[in-house]
Fold this sequence. Notes:
The protein is an alpha+beta fold. Helices cover 46% and strands 9% of the residues. It folds into three domains: 10-214, no CATH class; 219-281, no CATH class; 290-476, no CATH class. It contains 17 helices and eleven strands.
Amino acid sequence: xxxxxxxxxxxxxxxxxxxxxxxxxxIDPFVDVDTQLFIDPVLLEKSANTTxxxxxxxxxxxxxxxxxxxxxxxxxxxxxxWRAAERLLxxxxxxxxxxxxxxxxxxxxSRPEEVRLAIMRTSKQVIALGSKDPEMISLMGxxxxxxGPDTISDFTTKAIIEQLATITAxxxxxxxxxxxxxxxxxDHPLPLAKDRSGKxxxxxxxxxxxxxxxxxxxxxxxxxxxxxxxxxxRHRVNAMLAGIAKPTINDKKEALRAAAFESSESFAExxxxxxxxxxxxxxxxxxxxxxxMKEILSRGYGNIQSSKTYNLGSGPDEIARLVHxxxxxxxxxxENGNLWEELWLANKPKKERAAQLIYYAIADVYCQAHNVDxxxxxxMGGGPVDFKFSSGYNARVLVEMKRSGGTVRHGYxxxxxxxxxxxxxxxxxxxxxxxxxxxxxxxxxYQIRSERQLAGQPASDIIVIDATRKASASKRL
Length: 477
């Protein structure tokens, strides 16, 4: 991913009240980077937006009915019917919806041909069972290792792009946002936003109630919940896993695939269970912290000030001082204010990303005031570090943030150092969010740090933030 600096919300770019988008049931996206929410085709017919619930679901079913029909008459891979089906399965990333894993620029990307081939082969197997439900395509992430939520979201967007354009145009006309003819959809004028290269690109808005976090590719939780809703699938999967002491996610996916593909009835029952189970992303719960981050970016957070001065031209030490100050502000509001509440979902800690995004929004106040670039999930060659702060080419500081229940030792001992080597910097800060299950991990990483210092080696700073549940601020007075 390229670096991200000062992401701009749609509402801010077009100078409208964010509440207008909320009232219309639409996401307020960034115009220059992606939001990691994904359109789930199973949610289309449940949408409160009639254009989606009627026209978009119809367009989706028509598109993938044609895809299935072509696969059904294909006799061999590569024959004319197969190639025609390939053309209908467009896996390029649509930058205009602002959703997905893109780190910068919303420019879109293509996926390996192996991903499309895997989807087509699996779809062919389902068709052979006798099932021709076009919504089968929404289940590919359950069965294929490399088919993630972004892939499903992207090919769904391609199928319903005209309906999304209609919704966008209606909103823009109602609120005085200029619509412009474009190459993406010549018959649908859209709002344009200037990207980092200076080009104007069309945007479409997406209803809030058709997106979710969709952690299908890496998280067994959603799959397990869907399985529990189907007696036939549950018993079959449990029987297949009975002989495995500690089944991996791959083991579980293989068992699920075998159970669902046992017959057309089994597959139909699993599809029905998924449809029943799927829920849209709830902004009130905000499990990933996206809405809290956007609120802070658009409205600020309390009385956060950045009145300190920094001599950034003196090198990375001053950048590190600024970064420490941003972490201190975040820690203060978590430990002494009520920000800890944003890091919990009922009695469970939220995913790491919730804390990362909220911290990013707070740190952005400092970065804007002092002309420092902050790049969340900047790819440094060794993998995506959580944050890179930089001023010029040589002054770089990396920050890695881990939950106490995660791989704390590995994150400090190996992960952050790999990123530092790739980024050609010795300045790293390792932040541990202690949710009460840290155990001996803190002593382990302090020992590693001490040993490195004694050996004259660079050792990343360690900061621990108490993120445990607390009494309300009034009860602590």
